Hints:
Layout: E1 5-10, H1 21-35, E2 39-45, H2 52-55, E3 58-59, E4 67-70, E5 73-76, E6 78-84, E7 89-95, H3 117-135, E8 141-145, H4 152-158, E9 171-176, H5 189-194, H6 200-206, H7 211-220, E10 224-227, H8 234-242, E11 246-248, H9 253-267
Helix pairs in contact: 6-7, 7-8
Amino acid sequence: MAKGRVLFVNQEITPYLKETKLSLLGRHLPQYIQENGRGIRTFMPRFGNVNERKNQLHEVIRLSGINLIIDRSDHPLIIKVASIQQARMQVYFIDNEDYFQRKYDLIDENDELFADNDERVIFYSRGVLETIKKLNWKPNIVHCSGWFSCLMPFYIKRTNYKNNPLFGTSKIVITLVDDEFTGSLNENFCKKLKVDGGTVKDWSFYKDSDYLNYMMAAISYSDGVVLASENVNPKLIEFAKQNKKHIVEYAPAEEQYPLINALYDKIIVLDEE
């Protein structure tokens, strides 16, 4: 019996970025899931601290060239790819000169959020979805890890992407870790999102886009939640429980990966043959 396909949308993956809970999950979970018989695609942003030459990134011309409009401005989408040979796994990178070709990833040299992180996360989410459309690859599960990836649930469930046959039956899983940022995303974030869809209830999350509101929105649109840290904000865990989400409790990776795979089995919707 077919086991379906999983789209991994990551904030970071080692060896492209330093080892963290998220980057190790981004590296090893897709490999585990692929070795257990599922098809996978894996994405991350091409942050400026990713060494292209060392990691042998190259542009995929046939996938690049789309212009994404954000706040009435055009931003060209560039797709790059690299391979992790020992895992037999390709990683797709979302790139753009305006948003990603700077020395840092999410915070600047003063440990402050970049002022345009709201637009960067919009670009990343839409860039992944547009690339999947070009690949004509239907994911049964979309698994998002790291707050920078967690606008994806909104786009899949609350915008026109929900009407696309590639995403209409996709189930969504998000990973929660202790990656809470201070402050809020740009005060115009909600206004920029309204162009793409949503309802009054959605705007109640994004109007004040601090970490808790932003992640509560992601949880509300998701089917499952993975706790990949012992220090996840307890308010998010309680919110997930109140909203009756499937929860994979924190455990060491070798114990948690099979539990995640079992969660996929529980929620997946496979096409009828």
